[in-house]
Amino acid sequence: MAERTPEHDLVDLDDSQPIVLTGTPDALRGTLPLRNRSERRVVLRDVAVVDTKDSVGLRQGAGRFATTVLRPQQARTLPVSLAVDAKTPPGEYRLTLQVAGRERDLVVHVVETIAVDVAPNPLVIENRAEEKIGKTIVVTNRGNVPISVGEIGAVVLDDELLSCRSLRATAAALGDSEDDEGVTIPRMLTQLSREFKNSFESAGRLRVRNKTGRVDLQPGELARLALEIEVPETLDPRTRYFGRIAVYSTDLELVIVPFRAADETPARATPRGRRATTRRST
Asked: Alpha-carbon distance 209 to 212, whole Å?
């Protein structure tokens, strides 16, 4: 029976340059050129990454690759991907790639990753303009570099009914004119712009204060932040408003919702089919 030739004697590997992987800790990617110089099919079952110094913290199962088949005389570029500990700092790391019974130098370039989680998100706030509202959020650093969360300040608000409110106000203002045929497009656009401006001004800004103070978070750490929130008095109590706070690459969404006190009497609805009478000056 003829003795089988070892795989490393059949597969060409370019040993002149190391294999290079680049990317974030969870998505390091590169390529490995291979060539089967024999006349028979070669199956590479043992391709692995070895980190003898435990410098990057290989994830379990992340240092091995799927079985690769090379047909006779086939040249193929094998995609190589690797995932390491999410907290691995940016930098260059030297590992070893074992393939076809031989070892290749593997250079890993880990790049900076900014990833922040904020919970709860969205943060729901009741429209209580006369009170300072307290809320607590949890900020988690999922990246591989330190971050700092400091003061927040004013947050611009968007009116959920901005377009509807402005269009209705424009129609009401122009519809009361005795000379409806004199309502031109420029006049309508001017009135509409005025109503949009009024809606923007009434929305105002939400005041958000970080009562906890500045918090520094290392990769993998989390912190609870106590917020003090003041709602503008100009908000319509029946409308929802939206805002957002930028926390590095993440947005903390804010939703201002209508608030009705327990002892507040709901407004009486007008019976169907009857229109409320209005007095008009002459």
From this structure: 9
Q: Are residues 47 and 151 in the same domain?
A: no
Strand runs labelled E in the chain: 11-12, 19-24, 27-36, 42-44, 48-50, 68-70, 75-82, 91-99, 102-110, 116-119, 123-126, 132-141, 147-149, 153-156, 158-159, 205-210, 215-217, 222-230, 241-247, 250-257
- The DSSP call for residue 203 is H
Ordered mean pLDDT values, 10 residues apiece, the chain (282 residues): 51 69 91 78 75 74 66 78 90 85 86 95 90 94 95 81 57 62 66 61 77 95 95 84 90 89 56 46 36
In angstroms, the CA 119 to CA 142 distance is 13
What does the radius of gyration of the chain's CA atoms come to, in whole angstroms? 32
Q: Show the CA angle centred on residue 196, arms to residues 193 and 201, nearest 5°.
A: 125
Tell me whether residue 278 is in a domain.
no
Look at the block and give the residue holding tokens 């003090």. 228
Residues 122 and 105 placed together within one structural domain of the fold: no
Do 239 and 254 meet the contact criterion of CB atoms below 8 Å apart? Answer: no
DSSP secondary structure code for residue 67 in this structure: -
Q: 59 phi and psi, to 5 degrees? A: -70, 150
Say how far apart CA 233 and CA 201 lie, in whole Å: 12
Question: What sign does the dihedral 147-150-155-160 (CA atoms) show?
Answer: positive
Alpha-helical regions (H) of the chain: 162-175, 185-203
Q: Are strands 205-210 and 222-230 parallel, antiparallel or unpaired?
A: antiparallel
Q: In Å, how far are 32, 128, 165, 211 from 176, measured between CA atoms? A: 76, 35, 17, 50
142 and 179 part of one domain:
yes
Supply 187's token pair.
């006049």
Does residue 275 form part of some domain? no
148: three-class secondary structure by DSSP: strand
